[in-house]
Amino acid sequence: MSVDLNLSRSNRIYRPNEPLEGKIVIKSPSSFSHAAIRLTVNGSVTLQIRGGSAGVIESLYGVLKPISIVNKSVEVKSSGRIGSGTTEIPFSVLLKNPGDGNSETFYETFHGADISIQYLVTVEIQRGYLHKSLSATVEFIMETELANRPDQAVSPEMVLFYITQDTQRQTLLPEIKSGGFRVTGKICTQCSLSDPISGELTVEASAVPILSIDIHLLRVESILAGERIITETSLIQTTQIADGDVCRQMTLPIYIIVPRLLTCPTLYAGPFSIEFKVSIVITFATELSKLHPKSDPRTPRPWLAMESVPLELVRTK
Amino acid sequence: MEFRPRNYTSEEESHSLPRAPADTHPLSPPSPSLLQVDVVDHGKNEFYDPLRGSDANVMVSLDDLQDEYKSSAVNEADFELPTKGWTSFKKFLMQRFSGSKMVSISPMSDVIMKSGQVREKASTTMHLEELDDPQKFAEDGIKVISQQVYVSRLHELKDEINRAWQANDRVTSLALAIKVARLLMDTSVLQFYPTLFVLATDVMDMVGEMVWQRIKQKAEFSEDGNVICSLPENFEAKDICIDAKETCSNWFFKIGSIRELLPRIYLELAILPCWRFLVDCPVDVVQRLVMMTRGIADPLASAYCRLYIAHCAQKLPQQYSETGYLIICINDIKNLLTRFLSAEESTDENFAERSKSLISLMEPTIEYIVKCIINDSNQTRAPNILVELGIGMKQTQLVGKLPCISIILHHFLKELPSELVSSNAMEIFQLIECSKDYSFDQCLNYRLLGFRISESRSQFDIINAVVDKVIEVASEYNTLDEFLKVVEAYIDIILQNQMDNKLNMIMDGIVKRACNEGIAENELISLQSIFLKLLAHFNNLEDIFTLSHFIEILDMMHGSARSMVNMHILNMATRKGRIHDPTIVQFLFEVSQSLHDVLDHSNMKNDDSQQPARLISRFVNMVDYGPELERHLAFLLECRAAFGGINDLKETLVHSSNRLAVKAMKDGENHASFVKSCIAFSEVTIPSVPSCVKQLNLYLETVEVALLGGLVSHSDGLLDSAILCLQNMDQMDDLRLPSDVDGILSLMRKLCSLLVLVPGNPQQGVTHVLRNMLALISSQSWVSSRTRTRLLCTILSLAAALSQFELPYHGNPELVLGNDRLFFGDPTYLQELLSLSASTLQNLVDNIMQEPSLVARGRMALEACNCIASSFNLSPEVLPFVSKLMETAKSCLSSNDKYLQSTIKFVDKFSSE
Lengths: 317, 913
Prior knowledge:
Chain A is mainly beta.
């Protein structure tokens, strides 16, 4: 005996003003009776404080109380019997009540390190006291409704950057410092989620050979805990754009597809905010860098040069 | 028994056909009314009559058609480049670089080593980050495995990917494909890299095809199997349903999350055609991938990556084809090489060795991309390519630009349309001049330019300037090898445009360098080609002699190259009719001598020796000293001494000396001793001819000449030698075929006809030669019964002819007395002939009776009857033979047989007389 939820859209993406539709599929070898079949839609923001800039006391709190976005329960079927074999029960649930107007609180789905915005739909079949109730849960993905999206596709705002031995705050290895290097380019600071993060980069000079140039996509999650804002930056994705000591004065494209689920439009809510940034990291080929092939890109190292720029992600039409 | 008296003159008159003058010459072209018939004939069978003038035109046009067909076939092959071309290119890659057997692999290639782990990971969750296999770098983790193991492991991986896909575990398939692509990051395997590339891209292509099929299916069929639509070949992105688009972009999301650059590019290339489900013009994507490839610093890895771009871009529909990105590819390779070549010039030899092999590894990628550029671009776009290459710019603009890399230039030069090469010859020359790097030998580019220019007609002034420059450049080369490599390519141009002073400069250059260092083997090949071109162009020995240094250089040459040139000289000289000029004869004689000296005399039968031998014989045959007969004979003597190894030549010598003798006789006055020496020359020369049949033929020819000159004693000796020759026939292997026997039969008949002229020798008896022949006929094993019948008939006829008061023909009556005069009315003479005839007649009939085959016996009997009836009066002595033979013929043949009937009539006519 099993129950499944099949959503009407294979990509499971819904918008607040759209009904959540699908089928409840019950498979049973024999017929049985039930008390009721209920469908529950639950959307919430889970906040968690750990490590990062959180102090000892805050980390003791651990999980903060989740912020509920939507919580709805509807009875799809009142008590009755379900026949043997496969039974399909279609359903349609309005996520947002038509009168509610503002749907900005329907944040887009996001799975971060400390902040998680998740929408779940659960079906539950109660079968009286003697039997365990059957249930199934499926996550669906929330996207901003079309009407609330910026009208025009964001004009890609580019920022110019240049990275030299003098722009680095951390100490560099003496040969890198003395030999000098200069990497310039541009990268967009505002980007539609459906477009790649674009830009270009040129190694103008570098005395020490380059091992690799990577673009890190980082998320910056901030949570208001009491009086303090606890911010944590974590890595989403690394994309290499140069492998080895590339030709000087040659323009390399920056082209990074923004991963789904792990990103969402940049969000400033009261109790929390989700921001993003990209950092361009140049790894020089030195003895030391060979010893530390995989280091946390957030930590400055003497064989790395980096530059970070904030990135505003938007959901466009 | 008596011979039938004959009057040959009246018989000829009564039997010869009436003659009337013809209106047209039989060999002239047929009149138009006949032409139609001929054409029809021509269509039916392939028979080609070389004498029919008008038909030749038809043949030519047919040839043209065939040529056209051939060239169109070539074009078709070119168009197939995307599919078939790639397969053969891959094969070529694997074969070209199959040197090393062991491969050192870096720990990065752990997918090769730890096959167990792959399965373990396959079952893990499908989170994106799982695709990113943690790399384990170890300082000294380099392991060595055999190439075979590596290859078989790659095949296993391919199977695994396939299996996982079939099991709907596409994430595993992708994960494995990424691992395979990652292998391409490791270029430490060097010589193995092309093989690795072929195997890995096989996997990529397979994955790409599977993804394409899956998305296409999603676009065409709904989940429950209903047909949504059927996609046409040239579908557009709007035809694709949302679901399929979703799946498609999912793939690009997954691939986009690969951390490393190289595998990310390869995977996106693998599924490049899938962009068509999302956008209508994926050319921008290709452009971006080309730019992304710039991030790969390793020259080998990036070159092969660009090769894969060129390959994958061809999978896009043709209307998107654009060469812009390929030109960027080539320019990027150029930049990479420029940097690479300049960086390494300073360092040690080991590095130079490594970079040489690196360049040879990269060469196929350049070649392929250049081919794609030239193939894809039509005529109008080709000039743009030149601009991209830096051609068509002014000299000042070129200064700032990087010089072209010679190996890239080489491949462009190879592929560019020839008209473009010709019209931009000077600019291309300047490009070559600028590119002096060691990736490709500069002089070979000059050489290629020459060959390309000569492919099409071009303006004289351009060509002239280029040739000037090239000779200037070439004259700076110190070695003959380089000098020849360059100038060889320009010889055609120089000859066609009659740049005589340039030709002289080249010849000077060759002599100067050859004197210094001699001529090596590979240089001989170039020299040979130059000389053959000169010979083909001038086609006249006098002009060749005026060429400075020609003979000097020829003398310095040796080996097969020299023989080849010598053969061409001889061939050319002997095609122009008789050779009179003594200096030319002397020169050709020396040429022949040098040719003869290198012949393999132990094996004259093989083709290599036949051609020179034939040419020398031909030369000897064509020499003509005109009235200086003595000198000509001396020349023949000289030839006999010099070319002892050539058997065919001996025949030529005999023919020539006989011809000389006849010529002397025609000239008249005071020739007797000269003719004698000619005959003596022939007589001495003939025994060294190996074939008996040929000897016999030559003897008979010489007998004729001797008789013509009235040298009776010579002819007697020669006849004896001919008979001796016949007796030796048995020991020779000449008589394998029946046709050989027929040949001898006709030679013996010719001998008999000559005997009519030869005065009988009273000491030896007039029938001396005939008796010898009879003995020969009965003793020799090669004489079949049919041959014997015919020979006996011939002898009977001869005896009958000799018995006449007036012989049918005579030699020169002043010099040779015929038997009719010599033995006029001599009864012993007639008696001797009759007794010989009687035994011959008996012999003949016995021989026929022994023949086992009925038909053959019948035929032979008829032949004999005809012969006997025309030779003898049918007296009671002869009649029994005739009637016996007629009975035999009647019993053996059907009564309807025409030969039988006509013979019966013939015999009846005589018996009724």
